[in-house]
Amino acid sequence: xxxxxxxxxxxxxxxxxxxxxxxxxxxxxxxxxxxxxxxxxxxxxxxxxxxxxxxxxxxxxxxxxxxxxxxxxxxxxxxxxxxxxxxxxxxxxxxxxxxxxxxxxxxxxxxxxxxxxxxxxxxxxxxxxxxxxxxxxxxxxxxxxxxxxxxxxxxxxxxxxxxxxxxxxxxxxxxxxxxxxxxxxxxxxxxxxxxxxxxxxxxxxxxxxxxxxxxxxxxxxxxxxxxxxxxxxxxxxxxxxxxxxxxxxxxxxxxxxxxxxxxx
Length: 264
Description:
Oligomer: single chain
Structural class: alpha+beta
């Protein structure tokens, strides 16, 4: 796929950050990490990756705004465009030596995500999309799955950890969903969960208590791969609320109905 100039900038930044993260991942036992809150860790590698991405993107597009996990947001001279970045989604996996984490970069234009990159350096899988042009993984077109029977479907989610307030709701979600499907996976990186929905590896995904940088890029990947995304509650903004349902078109209605009946 021949991407736009902005997409190429995003891919270059993601790959550069990914190379640095892979070096640190190989020496994960030597990383110095500090706790931001219970179960949510930040490492030197995390902060360094965001610096790499921010420097690359702001150098190329100095007028764009910025929203990242580890650094202060910045209002751009161009109020219509904003980068939304998670330099290391799956930090806990990273620090435990689990090779399932990603760099996530999205470009927002007038409140809508128009370009997206999710890069998994450990597996060398680059997922990317632009509005209206489809979703790709390493230059191969991706499509959501075509499974239409819930009992054949596998779903992904993020089970709340530590003191997160949505644990009771999630446990009730699982009680309703698990008897109706082939399984639920919790791999600890929302950006990759959404990328896997786009690639047809998962049939759907849902989660609460997310941040914009966790899901901004992944939402576009799913949509451009032919899937649907929606808030858990009708009328809410996914990025502002931090709650999302994503699935292939065939099972989206049944999947979302089960969860929305539980949403309260």
